[in-house]
Amino acid sequence: MSALQPSPPLQVQPVQWTLLLPKPRLDAARSINSKQQHSSRPQPILPPLPFLAALKMTDSYISTGNGDAFTPNGSSRMNGSSPSLPTTSNDAGTAPIIRKKLMGFVGFANLPNQVHRKSVRKGFQFTTMVVGESGLGKSTLINTLFNTTINPPKETLPPSAERPSTVAIESISADIEENGVRLRLNVVDTPGFGDFVNNDESWRPIVENIESRFDSYLEQESRVNRQKIADNRIHACLYFIQPTGHSLKPIDVECMRQLHTKVNLIPIIAKADTLTDEEVAEFKARILADIAYHNIHIFQAPTYENEDDEAIAEAEEIASKIPFAVVGSDKEVTTPDGRKVRGRAYPWGVVEVDNEDHCDFVKLRQMLVRTYMEELREYTNDVLYENWRTEKLLSMGVIQDSSVFKEINPAIRIQEERIMHEAKLAKMEAEMKMVFQQKVQEKEAKLKQSEEELYARHREMKEALEKQRLDLEDKKRRIENGRPLTPEKISTGRKKGFLRP
Amino acid sequence: MAAPTVEEIRANAYVGFDTITQQIEHKLLKRGFQFNVIVVGQTGLGKSTLINTIFASHLIDTKGRKEADEPVRQTTEIHPVSHVITENGVRLRLNIVDTPGYGDQINNENCWDPIVKYIKDQHSAYLRKELTAMRDRHIQDTRIHCCLYFINPTGHSLRSIDIIVMKKLSEVVNVVPVIAKSDSLTMEERESFKQKIRAELVHHNIRLYPFDTEENDEEEVQLNESIRASTLPQLVGSERNVIIDGKSVRGRKNRWGVVNVEDEKHCEFVYLRNFLTRTHLQDLIETTAQIHYEAFRQKQLLALKEQTNTRAS
């Protein structure tokens, strides 16, 4: 609890009409997170989610209670928070987050403790992988790091024994406990790496192992019942470099290039007691130059804003020592001045493992166990695993529907859909009309044509008839001309008489 | 007919033919000696530094890759470096052959081929010079007399590449294995490592110098055994001087102590130097000429004879 006190946004203050609030940044949760991590006791890991959700909940509560914002006394609110003007909303689409100040002690500052208790009950899991040629002291270093003999001393094969021809992957698990905190530690060893005459593709079993762990986690996530998810993804990979003093070997470069996108790489100079101080410094510089030249991405301790200077200085110190030059030892020896320390005894002196002057073991342990264990796990989960998952799903043919990323308001959506639908209908209507008109026109044209034909025929027939009639009349006259022209003449006379003026 | 027995007679008076050794010495001093060494081992094991330490002078440069954009060296760049060292009027012409890039690649198959080829080339050059009708009185001897094979101080056992290469090399040259950078092993680790390596060498039938030939009598066999038991020296090399107890000695200085190269308790450098220069120098040269070169010559001449036979027939 004491570590939580100085958090600015949640100050406890008496009732005031204060309109200005110090802004609680949303990463304040993370700063508390990291502060806890940097303190020396094993501190709980605070997942940002419930805390932020709590913040949001109070915010939304406040925003709904905004209607009574301007009553003179704040008695209408349950938690006694003082009202304030809504701060500027960020952008359209997100509800404006209202910052409020507490006026009395609420008690949700106890949340981290609850999480702490829960996590301790659940226990923690950490998986690390050690990669390097045989004889570089990998097993000894693991034993030294965790102060227990996790790896049994290697029994030597007789010379006539069959040597394996591929890189094997062996995994050892141990449950260790300290101060009531249980840690399930998995160490994945890779015997045989770099030992053969032909080391082509010797990193392939390692990469496949890492990917298969991601695979199994993805499968577990996609199950129907997700209660028990065992996380055995590799959180950190310690890469052991031979202390040649010159620079990285081609196999080192190639292997690191294959691994750095899939796992947190931490390069280590093994058996550093063969090198003098200047040699170590030069070697480190050359290794870093090699790494930068080949664009290999090693694990960097992330720094957050609003951390105190002490934490920043510590992080910088750790970062400056990468790659760590370590010496491992699980035996205790006596120094010339009588102390019993973990180290190696030579005729010319004793190398102390825990002495920061002698080697960087302490820094490595700090980075791996005391400070950044959770960072490693988080980075594996949030970045490395997500990248791999995206790749895999895309390659399986799942199309990314990017519209899911926008905030969906269902009413708007329906509106949009309706408009679209109507537009479609209108278009269809127009089309049909066009077709109809076209057809009508065609029919009209046809009918007109036939009408004309009819008229033409009618005229023709009429003319033909006229002609026939004239013919007949002619004939009739001629016939009547043979007779006296009486009826006709009369008729014609009459006509004439009628028409005679 | 039985071979005539040779009787040893003692002369009555001092004749004086025992000065022949001095005459030979005088002649040989004028001519000078020639010694060729090849160092084989992975990059960064301290080969160049060791040569410089043995002969107490800067003879070769360390050939590590210093810049990130330098390409990795290939073993095709085998070149001898020649120096002449003089000590007490004795001239020693030294040829040191370094093998950069050996065992550095990811795929090291046949990385020993250039080395074996180089050694055989020297033999064949000598053979050619010997067989010409007009040959020089004294042929320049570039045959490799000794091969120092550097073993990585893993503490576990020999690697497969070491076994293969040592086998191949032991057929053409005197191989002397040494354990490099032994300041990474404590005393107990060193002993156990040595035992393991010796067991492995015996198991794979790798003939190391000194050899047992049929001519050696009982005593010499014993001597060879003892030499073999004490070799496999663990080495630390250093060109730079450090101050121990007010004296300036060659060594390496760390925060926890100073390694004195010449101290027998720290490393066995002294043994190797004595072995190479003080006791077995002449023997190495002779063994090369008598055993390895003869074997090579035999094979070549037989092959030549067969060639001419097939051509004639």
Textual characterization of the structure:
The complex is a heterodimer of chains A (501) and B (313). With 501 residues, chain A is an alpha/beta fold. Chain A folds into 3 domains: 17-106, no CATH class; 121-152 and 166-395, Rossmann fold, CATH 3.40.50.300; 438-499, no CATH class. Chain A is built from 12 helices and 9 strands. Chain A has helices at 28-38, 48-64, 111-122, 138-146, 204-221, 250-259, 277-293, 309-320, 361-371, 373-395, 410-482, 486-499, and strands at residues 124-131, 170-178, 181-189, 236-241, 265-269, 324-325, 332-334, 340-346, 349-352. A 6-stranded mixed β-sheet of chain A has the order 2-3-1-4-5-6, sandwiched between helices. In chain A, helix 9 (361-371) crosses helix 10. Chain A is elongated and about 175 Å long. By secondary structure, chain B is of the alpha/beta class. Chain B has a single domain, classed as Rossmann fold (3-Layer(aba) Sandwich). In chain B, 39% of the residues lie in helices and 16% in strands. Chain B has helices at residues 20-31, 47-54, 113-131, 160-170, 187-203, 218-230, 269-279, 281-312; strands at 33-40, 80-87, 90-98, 146-151, 175-179, 241-244, 247-253, 258-260. In chain B, the strands form 2 sheets. A 5-stranded mixed β-sheet of chain B has the order 2-3-1-4-5, with helices on both faces. The longest helix of chain B has 32 residues, at 281-312. Chain B is globular, with a radius of gyration of 22 Å. At the A-B interface, helix 6, helix 7, strand 8 and strand 9 of A face helix 4, helix 5 and strand 8 of B.
